[in-house]
Amino acid sequence: MTPTQKGSFRLFQFAGVTVFLHWSWFVVALFEIRDPAGRYHSLAWNAAEYLALFGIVLLHEFGHALACRSVGGRADQIVLWPLGGVAYVSPPQRPGATLWSIVAGPLVNVVLAVPMTMLLVFGETLGWWVKGSEVQTFVWWLWVINIVLLVFNLMPVYPLDGGKILWAVLWFFLGRAKSLMVASIVGMVGVVGVIAFAVVAHSIWIGIMAAFILMSCWRGLQTARAMVRLERLPRRDGFLCPLCHEAPQAGVFWQCSHCGARFDTFETQAKCPQCAAQFAMMKCLNCGGLSPLDAWIMPPPAGR
Fold it and tell me: Where are the alpha helices (DSSP H) in the chain?
């Protein structure tokens, strides 16, 4: 299950993106902080390490959000929870825009690795800490955590970033629906390896993550199948989505929010034929975007 605002509380807002923290984060934090694993002599260092982990995760998610907004997409919410973080992004339905929105997250980890590495190499030489001290241990584990997050996220397993990158790259050649189907199937195969690793490492958290990935792959596969069915439907002439530039489907695929009747919103000019409710915005079934009717209407060809 993907975290939402439900069960979360607002932390802060930055650059138009609101950050929420799920209540379960505190439960897991208490468990993790009380298990020092012999690295430090004080629990304060464990707490600092756990907070730093989510600091890295937060920067990663802001990478996704800000990259999405840079290409004209919508991104206004990040939710932190025990398994990491989720940036709710909706980039323009183009493979290039989607690819950049995804790649930007791992790029943040690459950028963070540079000063961390420099700090490890020169910290002792510059006298910032004594070899084997808790400060050095802390910096070392932050470096390890950042690299592990980078490598793990780049696994070609949907919905990890690597799986989404595979989807976006294949989108250029196979289209949006078929590429998502391939990425979901590859992810379902790859999650077997994640489950095996969880068993070998005796890690309940990796096991939970594997279950989450498997459910997400299944949802992705079902979404891809629905998208394939949508792509095969006949399209209506004279209209074009101003956001994704796809022609709308012809048929009774829209539902009135007042009376529940189904109708073809382009045939009725965005008016429910049963209760006469008029809708200012029309939803695109391809990208999910909302636009006024006037924005959908294509101008007549030149010379007519």
Answer: 24-33, 43-70, 95-122, 134-153, 161-174, 176-201, 204-232, 293-296
Of 274, 250, 280, 247, nearest in space to 262 by CA: 274
The CA angle 165-75-107, to the nearest 5 degrees, is 40
The pLDDT confidence band at residue 32, using thresholds 50, 70 and 90, is low
Q: Is 107 helix (H, G, I), strand (E, B) or coil?
A: helix
Q: Is the dihedral of CA 76, 79, 85, 86 positive or negative?
A: negative
What whole-number distance in Å separates Cα of residue 292 and Cα of residue 297?
10
For the stretch 188-246, pLDDT in tens is: 888 888 788 778 877 777 787 788 788 888 888 888 888 888 888 899 888 888 888 88
Contact predicate 171/100, CB 8 Å: no
Answer for the pair 207, 198: CB distance below 8 angstroms, yes or no: yes
% residues pLDDT > 70 (the chain): 91
pLDDT digits (tens, 9 = 90+) for 47-84: 888 888 889 999 999 999 999 999 988 899 999 887 77
* Secondary structure (3-state) at 84: strand
> Which region, left, alpha or beta, applies to residue 37 given φ > 0 means left and ψ of -120 to 50 means alpha?
left
**Cα–Cα distance list, 6 to 23, 27, 30, 39, 228 (Å):** 10, 16, 21, 35, 32
Report which of 102, 228, 222 is spatially closest to residue 174, judged by C-alpha positions. Answer: 228
The Cα-based distances of 127 to 49, 122, 131, 147, 280 in angstroms read: 22, 9, 10, 25, 65
- CA dist 119 and 75 (Å) reads 33
Alpha carbon distance 256, 282 (integer Å): 11
Q: What distance in Å separates the CA atoms of residue 80 and residue 17, rounded to the nearest whole number?
A: 13
